[in-house]
Amino acid sequence: MNILRSKLFAPLALLLSSSVQAQLPASDSAASAPTELFSAGYLFQVLGSLVLVFVCLFAVVYFLKRFNGVSVGSASALRVIGSASVGQREKVVLMEVGGEQLLIGVAPGSVRTLHVLPEPLIDTSAQESAAPDFAAVLRAANPLGSRS
Questions:
Q1: How far is CA 113 from CA 28, 31, 80, 102, 103, in A?
Q2: What is the reported pTM?
Q3: Are strands 78-85 and 110-117 parallel, antiparallel or unpaired?
Q4: What is the pLDDT of residues 44-65, one digit of tens each?
Q5: Helix (H), strand (E), coil (C) string for the chain
Q6: C-alpha span between 100 and 120 (Å, rounded)
């Protein structure tokens, strides 16, 4: 009986193993050529991406610092005319509210009016008329000149 089992199961096992081997080369070819995790191309791609992220980050920080003082809407009734740091976390701010100018102290957790100025220290109407519009600034900054 053992001889009969071995004669029946041997061709069946051979048939199954050949069908399994026919399916393996497709998936085995990817496993036979392992991808290198630290290849030169991969490292250049990762380092290039990292440098690109840092360049974008520094560009955003630069432009935020550069254009921090630019006011978007000057038609507001509330305007900051100037400010000065008087400590590590304290500031003195000169503001215009309506037609009055206020000197305000700003500290963590508190904002206090230090002085209400009877006469404006800085004439803001002269500053507004002297400020160029966006188109004039763009024309001055464009190295190629006007294209119209």
A1: 77, 73, 14, 7, 6
A2: 0.37
A3: unpaired
A4: 999 999 999 999 999 999 888 8
A5: CHHHHHHHHHHHHHHHHHHHHHHHHHHHHHHHCCCCCCCHHHHHHHHHHHHHHHHHHHHHHHHHHHCCCCCCCCCCCEEEEEEEECCCCCEEEEEEECCEEEEEEEECCEEEEEEEECCCCCCHHHHHHHCCCHHHHHHHHCCCCCCC
A6: 7
